[in-house]
């Protein structure tokens, strides 16, 4: 019997040309080296995937909305075994990378395409570039994405192990920056928990949590 290696479809939208960029990540290929999914436009944005020293998967994803690359760390089981896994921009909450089988990825791209159209209509924008930020001065620097990265890893790990609960117990969990830290919330019932972390060191103090219930 021939055993087929696990693989995942992945896609993101280029922040320069707004095209959807598709790729396939195989478990064996990822073990060998860093993988790069690159747009063919002149500006050439790229999504990078590599394994960390402790066997987790790190992704650097170009963001359509704030034009920064966001870094995420997920466990191998979450990446390869989930039916669907989405990565979102920590500043806007919008999904920017889509992981799953081909049909799921295409479905999520279609859903978010409609969300982008509604967002542009709300701001009377004719092009996605009109929603993207200009160069920021020191007073406008965004919160440290390493804080979000650390806490997202914690939340997704707890969720995968069944150690994250909310009021509806059917949670669809996401994170967002808020005043004083990062908030995890259930998209279905609205239950929340706020991590009072504004620096990577403070975020790492939460990594010993082994159970969390949103209220």
Can you summarize the main beta sheet? 4 strands, antiparallel
* Global mean pLDDT: 83
First-last Cα distance: 49 Å
Q: How large is the share of residues in beta strands?
A: 25-35%
Poorly predicted parts: 136-141
Please work out how many helical segments DSSP would assign. 5
What percent of the residues sit in helical stretches (DSSP H or I)? 25-40%
- In which order are the strands of the major sheet placed? 2-1-8-7
The helix/strand order is EEHEEEEHEEHHEEEEHE
How many domains is the backbone divided into? Answer: 2
Write down the oligomeric state: single chain
Written overview of the protein:
- This protein has five helices and 13 strands.
- The chain folds into two domains: 7-131, no CATH class; 143-213, no CATH class.
- The protein has helices spanning 27-32, 76-81, 102-122, 145-160, 200-204, and strands spanning 7-13, 20-26, 35-38, 46-51, 57-62, 69-74, 84-88, 95-100, 164-165, 173-178, 181-186, 192-195, 212-213.
- The N and C termini lie far apart (49 Å).
Sum this structure up briefly.
With 215 residues, the protein is an alpha+beta fold. Helices cover 25% and strands 31% of the residues. The termini are far apart.
Can you tag this structure with a few keywords?
4-stranded antiparallel beta sheet, single chain, globular, alpha+beta, 5 helices, 215 residues
Layout of secondary structure:
Blueprint lengths: L6 E7 L6 E7 H6 L2 E4 L7 E6 L5 E6 L6 E6 L1 H6 L2 E5 L6 E6 L1 H21 L22 H16 L3 E2 L7 E6 L2 E6 L5 E4 L4 H5 L7 E2 L2
Parallel strand pairs: 9-13
Antiparallel strand pairs: 1-2, 1-8, 3-4, 4-5, 5-6, 7-8, 10-11, 11-12
């Amino acid at each position: 019997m021939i055993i087929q290696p696990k693989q995942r479809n992945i896609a993101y939208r280029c922040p320069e040309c707004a095209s959807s960029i598709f790729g396939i990540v195989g478990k064996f290929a990822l073990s060998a080296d860093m993988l790069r999914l690159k747009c063919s436009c002149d500006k050439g944005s790229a999504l990078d995937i590599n394994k960390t020293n402790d066997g987790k998967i790190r992704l650097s994803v170009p963001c359509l909305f704030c034009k920064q690359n966001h870094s995420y760390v997920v466990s191998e089981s979450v990446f390869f075994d989930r039916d669907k896994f989405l990565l979102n921009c920590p500043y806007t909450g919008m999904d920017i990378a889509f992981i799953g089988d081909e049909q799921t990825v295409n479905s999520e791209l279609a859903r978010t395409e409609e969300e982008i159209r509604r967002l542009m209509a709300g701001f009377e924008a004719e092009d996605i570039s009109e929603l993207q930020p200009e160069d920021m001065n020191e007073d406008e620097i965004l919160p440290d994405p390493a804080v979000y990265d650390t806490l997202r890893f914690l939340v997704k790990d707890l969720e995968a192990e069944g150690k994250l609960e909310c009021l509806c117990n059917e949670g669809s969990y996401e994170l967002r920056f808020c005043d004083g830290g990062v908030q995890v919330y259930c998209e279905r019932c609205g239950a929340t928990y706020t991590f009072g972390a504004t620096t990577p060191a403070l975020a790492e103090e939460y990594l010993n949590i082994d159970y969390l219930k949103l209220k």
